[in-house]
Specification:
Shape: globular
Bound molecules: adenosine-5'-triphosphate
CATH topology: Rossmann fold
Radius of gyration: 18 Å
Strand content: 5-15%
CATH superfamily: Phosphopantoate/pantothenate synthetase
Order of helices and strands: HHHEHHEHEHEEHEHEHHH
Number of strands: 7
Low-confidence stretches: 1-6
Number of helices: 12
Largest sheet: 5 strands, parallel
Strand order of the largest sheet: 2-1-5-6-7
Helix content: 40-55%
Structural class: alpha/beta
CATH architecture: 3-Layer(aba) Sandwich
Mean pLDDT: 93
């Protein structure tokens, strides 16, 4: 057994995880989800979702593949073009990339909305506080005064002036039913999900098959780079994007990746 193998799930601080560990990103991600559960912002089921993602990330080589980088640039263009962009935050997203989501919202002029599968007032409040601790000024999702059609009551709750009114929504690690229901409302959906076969990326206009811890900062970097680009050029970028090719490239990498 090497020292690396002794990096267990109970490290106190993420700084204790050696950055040169071959599975560093995976250990970091797992650690953040554990902390999220302890803080009451992530549901226990979030660890299961994390495990699924981790397996796909391993097969992708734990890196942003070229097709994902392109999708992240197109996602940034969509957010810049949008009139009412909203970034949806669930328990895993809040645990993994709170500050990074705040940065992306500020860079693209998007709103942040807490949107939970297992919704309780305590978790909504805890996530909103956690985002504020990471610099968010306004957090939506607490009103929950509108409903997404064709979903059960709890999972349908959104803010009337948030996701309900949005033209472009970023829904990372989203459940398939809700992704389909949002698509049926005519939203332009950007989905971040490591599984290219999952329903959520398959209904998205922009499927981003990448780990959220890499995808979100990269989207922000693209948004900064595109900030002075004129509208026609942004529209061309969005129109040229081939979602089927992006899904296919990720699946090919997963099935045939040289590990
Ligand atoms: P569907 O209902 O769309 O078929 P699912 O049942 O696979 O979805 P869940 O298990 O609820 O959905 O969601 C977890 C999804 O999030 C999985 O597809 C998993 O690959 C993905 N995922 C987990 N962690 C990450 C991460 N860090 N970055 C990106 N995607 C992730």
């Amino acid at each position: 057994m090497t020292d690396y193998d002794t990096v267990s799930a109970d490290v106190e601080h993420e700084e204790e995880i050696p950055t040169d560990h071959p599975r560093y990103q995976d250990l970091l991600t797992r650690h953040r989800i554990e902390r999220g559960i302890e803080k009451g912002i992530t549901h226990l089921q979030g660890m299961h979702a994390e495990g699924r993602g981790s397996a796909f990330d391993y097969l992708l080589g734990e890196e942003t593949i070229a097709s994902a980088d392109e999708a992240e640039r197109v996602a940034a263009a969509h957010l810049l073009l949008a009139e009412r962009p909203v970034l949806s935050i669930n328990g895993n997203v809040a645990a993994l990339v709170p500050g990074e989501m705040v940065d992306l919202a500020e860079t693209t002029g998007a709103d942040l909305e807490v949107n939970l599968f297992n919704r309780t007032p305590e978790r909504i409040e805890a996530i909103a506080d956690h985002l504020r601790d990471h610099g968010a000024e306004e957090v939506k999702g607490l009103e929950a005064d509108a409903r997404i059609p064709n979903l059960d009551h709890q999972r349908a709750k959104v803010d009337a002036d948030g996701i309900h009114a949005a033209d472009v929504v970023l829904v990372p690690l989203e459940d398939g039913d809700r992704a389909e229901a949002l698509e049926a409302m005519g939203k332009t959906e950007i989905v971040i999900d490591l599984n290219p076969l999952s329903r959520s990326p398959r209904v998205a206009e922009v499927p981003v098959v990448d780990n959220i811890i890499r995808a979100v900062p990269n989207m922000t970097a693209h948004a900064r780079d595109l900030a002075d680009t004129d509208e026609a050029e942004l529209r061309a970028l969005v129109e040229e994007f081939d979602r089927e090719a992006a899904l296919e490239a990720a699946e090919t990498r997963i099935r045939s990746g040289d590990l």
